[in-house]
């Protein structure tokens, strides 16, 4: 975790609402908020679902965490949960490429959250966007440094049927438009693929991205690059932009970019016991080059980023500890 200490923040005793509290990123944010003394109102779709149990076990949860039932399309549910909060962390979103399940809930849900936050007159809303809303533009020159000024090309996303990234970009644009119209102080964190230990009992999409290289479900790796960041840095970025009065606009939350070939190499070095692919699925074309990026804006707020190899290590260790990956069978001894 980066060494920024914001524990003395004057807002650390506030009541804040976290949407989708049981998810991978949100669980960590709830954990840190509770540790810092906040009172947290988490929204979940079903408070009675055992998949929320890890939240109730967090330090401070008994005294300062309440769970509220709210789907993103349920404006009244969101309104009740947000009313009485000083701030909102809007993290809930479908994470799917299915058009119907993705776009409408992400966009209308974000609109609902901003309207409810405006009505509750909260101090600030932090919205979790995605790098999918930023870097996907086939017409951008490879010399461009990708940062907070960039947006993905919506027409390209539509043509590619990349509905997750399309939905995230439309949701972020909706958040900006609604916040402007209603005078809401909005700050946006834009994480890339997030790695690290899980608090929740299931494998979310970004952890699944690594799990597939360990459990034998893929035999090759793709000829593509991916940007990564550690969950603890992602968590801290959200809290920093909430607490720092000078924070404004968008914050690209990225540590490094790796080709899939580099990811499997690091994994194989750290965990040689797993059947990690060694071949690229594309042996014809040259290796895809990483794009240039800047995370200077978050560094200017005091962030220091954890190296990606630590994120990969922590992900696998956590999957092992939670029993979410089988330990590979021991090698059969040659009896001859
Ligand atoms: N993990 C990453 O690498 C990454 C990178 C960039 C951005 N993000 C963004 O970060 C946020 C959290 O992602 P995550 O990785 O933590 O995913 P996750 O573990 O799948 O969490 C998603 C959360 O959103 C909730 N949700 C989904 N659809 C909903 C709906 N219609 N109404 C209410 N809640 C709904 C889920 O609730 P249920 O449990 O009920 O389904 C869950 O709590 C998302 O906005 C995602 O786009 C993630």
From TrEMBL:
Q: In which pathway does it act?
A: Aromatic compound metabolism; phenylpropanoid biosynthesis
Question: Per the record's keyword annotation, is NADP included, yes or no?
Answer: yes
Record-annotated membrane-spanning stretches: none
> What InterPro entries does its record include?
Epimerase_deHydtase, NAD(P)-bd_dom_sf, NAD(P)_dehydrat-like
- What does the UniProt keyword field contain? Disulfide bond, NADP, Oxidoreductase
What organism does this protein naturally occur in? Acer yangbiense
Q: Where does the record place the NAD-dependent epimerase/dehydratase domain?
A: 16-248
**Which EC numbers does the record give?**
1.2.1.44
The record's annotation in SUPFAM superfamilies points to: NAD(P)-binding Rossmann-fold domains (SSF51735)
Catalysed reactions listed for this entry: (E)-cinnamaldehyde + NADP(+) + CoA = (E)-cinnamoyl-CoA + NADPH + H(+)
Per the UniProt entry, what are the Gene Ontology biological process annotations, in alphabetical order?
Answer: circadian rhythm
Any one GO MF annotation of this record: oxidoreductase activity, acting on the CH-OH group of donors, NAD or NADP as acceptor
Q: Which family does it belong to?
A: Belongs to the NAD(P)-dependent epimerase/dehydratase family. Dihydroflavonol-4-reductase subfamily.
| Listed name of the protein | cinnamoyl-CoA reductase
The family database entries (Gene3D superfamilies) matched by this protein are listed as: NAD(P)-binding Rossmann-like Domain (3.40.50.720)
């Amino acid at each position: 975790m980066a060494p920024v200490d914001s524990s003395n923040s004057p807002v650390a005793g506030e009541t804040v609402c976290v949407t989708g509290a049981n998810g991978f990123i949100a669980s960590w944010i709830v954990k840190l908020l509770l540790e810092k003394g906040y009172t947290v109102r988490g929204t979940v779709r079903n408070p009675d679902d055992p998949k929320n149990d890890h939240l109730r076990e967090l330090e401070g949860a008994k005294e300062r965490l309440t769970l509220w039932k709210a789907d993103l399309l349920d404006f009244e549910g969101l309104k009740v949960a947000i009313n009485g909060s000083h701030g909102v962390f809007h993290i809930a979103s479908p994470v799917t490429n299915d058009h119907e399940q993705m776009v409408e809930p992400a966009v209308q849900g974000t609109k609902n959250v901003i309207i409810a936050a405006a009505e509750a007159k909260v101090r600030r809303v932090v919205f979790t966007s995605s790098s999918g809303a930023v870097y996907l533009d086939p017409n951008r020159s490879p010399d461009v440094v990708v940062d907070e000024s960039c947006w993905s090309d919506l027409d390209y996303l539509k043509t590619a049927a990349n509905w997750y990234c399309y939905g995230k970009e439309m949701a972020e644009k909706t958040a900006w438009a609604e916040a402007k119209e209603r005078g809401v102080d909005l700050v946006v964190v834009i994480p890339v693929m997030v790695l690290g230990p899980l608090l929740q009992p299931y494998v979310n999409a970004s952890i699944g991205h690594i799990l597939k290289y360990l459990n034998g479900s893929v035999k090759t790796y793709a000829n593509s690059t991916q940007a990564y960041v550690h969950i603890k840095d992602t968590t801290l970025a959200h809290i920093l932009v909430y607490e720092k009065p000078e924070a404004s606009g968008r914050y690209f939350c990225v540590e490094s970019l790796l080709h899939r070939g580099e990811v499997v190499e690091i994994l194989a070095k750290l965990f040689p016991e797993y059947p990690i692919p060694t071949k690229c699925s594309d042996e014809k074309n040259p290796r895809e080059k990483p794009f240039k990026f800047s995370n200077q804006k978050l560094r200017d707020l005091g962030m220091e980023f954890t190296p990606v190899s630590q994120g990969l290590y922590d992900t696998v260790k956590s999957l092992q500890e939670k029993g979410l990956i089988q330990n590979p069978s021991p090698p059969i001894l040659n009896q001859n």
